[in-house]
Amino acid sequence: MSPRTEREPVDLLVHGAAEVSTPTGSTPRTGRSLADIQVHRGAAVAVRGGRIVDVGDEADLRRRFVAARELDARGGTVVPGFVDAHTHPVFAGTREDEFEMRTRGATYLEIAAAGGGILSSVRGVRAATRADLVERVLTRLDRFLELGTTTIEAKSGYGLSIEDELKSLEVLAEARRRHVVEVVPTFLGAHDVPAEHRAHPAAYVDLVEREMLPRVAASGLAEYCDVFVEGHTFGIDASRRILERARSLGLSLRIHADQLSLLGGARLAAELGAHSADHLEFVDDAGADALAAAGVTAVLCPVVPLFLRLEREAPARRLIERGVPIALSTDFNPGSCYLQSLPQVLCWAALRYRMTAAEALTAATLNAACSLGRGKRLGTIERAKDADLVVLDVPNHLHLVYEHGRNAVRAVVKSGAVVLEREPAVHNLGAREARGSNGHAP
Ligand code: NIG
Ligand code: FE
Asked: CATH number of the domain at 8-80+380-436, please?
C-alpha cells in the first residue's frame, strides 16, 4: 500500500457492499439497453464535494483515497437514489372512503362525477393554510427518503384557482428549501375543472391559459406544466392550447396521457415535444411509435390500475420493444395511488409488466432523471455525478423485484451527505454476509 500521505482525501467512502449496481450514461436507455446495468461486485464508492469521485474495487479505492467518513454497506447492495418522476404530494386530507367505495363496486369516474375524486382534494387544499400544507409535504418527503427516493417531481393541481395553485407551488418551494429530497415542481392547474366552472369549462381553460400560466411562469415556481388529458377533464384541443402557451412561456411539458381512454394524449406529447407522457394504459402502437420517434419518456405507474381496480394496464413490453424510453413512478396521490414506495413499484413492474430487475432499476433512476432534465447529474453511480446513493439490505440487485413489502433501505446519501442511516436488526443476514466477505464487523 502506498503511504497514507499520498492518498487523496475524500469526504465519504461507501464500502462493504456485495454489489454496486447502476445504469450508466446520461441519456435515456431504450429497448435492450434498458437492461444494460453495471454490477460492480465488492465495489466501493468515493465521494467528495457532493459528487462521486470514483466507483470500483474497494481495495483499489482504499489504496488511492483516505476518507473523512466511512459508511459500511454491511454486505448490502448500493444503487442510485431513486427518482420518482410523477407525484402529487400537495394535498390536505386522504380519500380512504373512496377506496372503500371502489372495493364495494363503485368506479373512479362515478366517484368523480358525484363530486368526489380530485374535487374532494381541491376542497381540502383550498381550506388548508400554507403552513399546514408545508408540514404535510415535509412529512411526505421524509417518507420518500426512508424509502430510498432522493428526487421527486411534484405537481400542484389540487388548488385549481390562481391563488390556490400558486399556494401549492409556494408550498413545494418552501418544502424544497427545507428538505434534502430534491423537488422538481410542476404546474397542474389543468388537473380537473373546478366546481365553480363546471357549467362553463371553456372559461376555465381560458383562465388557465391566459391568467394562471403567465402568473406561474413569472413566479418561477414551476419547471413543468402538465395537463390531465382525458375525456372528462381536458380534451385534445384545450390541452394543446394550454400546453403550447406553457411552452411559449418557457415551461417544459409533461402530460397525463391515454390513462382511461385512447384520446390521443401520447400523440399530443410527441407533437409538442413533451419530456414525458404518463400512465398510457390505453396507448396504441401509433402512439408508442410517435413517442419513440420524438424521444418522449413513458412514465408508467403500474400500481394505479391495481389501486383503482381497473383491468387495463400499460403495454410496457410493447413500449420497450418499440423503443420508447420507460420510467417507473408511484403517481403518489390521495385518490388513485396512495403509495410512496418506488421499491414496491419495481416489484409490481416485474409482476405486471414483466420488467426485469435491471430494467426496473434503470427506469426508476436514470430514465426517470432524464425525463426530468437531470440525466447529466442524477440517476447513475458514475464519476462526476451527484452522490445520490441508496444502501439496501439485500445481497444483490435481483432482490429489487423479488422481495416484497419490507423496507430494505439501510442508508441514504443525498448530494454526498449521509442523510439517513438505520441500525441493522440484530439477526441481520446482510451483516453476517458482510462479516464473511470483507471482514468488517457490523
Ligand atoms: O395521476 N390522473 C390524474 N390525476 C391523478 C389522480 C388524482 C386524484 O384522483 O386525486 C392520477 O391518477
Ligand atoms: Fe398523476
From this structure: 2.30.40.10
**pLDDT, tens digit, 9 for 90 and up, residues 36-75:** 999 999 999 999 999 999 999 999 999 999 999 999 999 9
Architecture of domain 82-340: Alpha-Beta Barrel (3.20)
For residue 407, count other CB atoms closer than 10 A to its CB. Answer: 15
The residue whose CA has the least distance to atom 9 of ligand 1 is 335
Q: Which ligand is closest to the CA of 336, given by its number? A: 1
Would you say 46 and 12 are in contact if contact means Cβ atoms under 8 Å apart?
yes
Exposure of 304 in the CB half-sphere (CA atoms within 13 A): 26
Question: Residue 357 in contact with residue 401, Cβ under 8 Å?
Answer: yes
Listed residues: CB within 5 A of ion ligand 2: 331
Cα dihedral angle (366, 368, 373, 376), rounded to 10 degrees? -10
Residue with CA closest to ligand 1 atom 3: 228
CA-closest residue to ligand 1 atom 12 = 336
- For residue 86, report the distance from its CA to the centre of ligand 2, in Å: 6
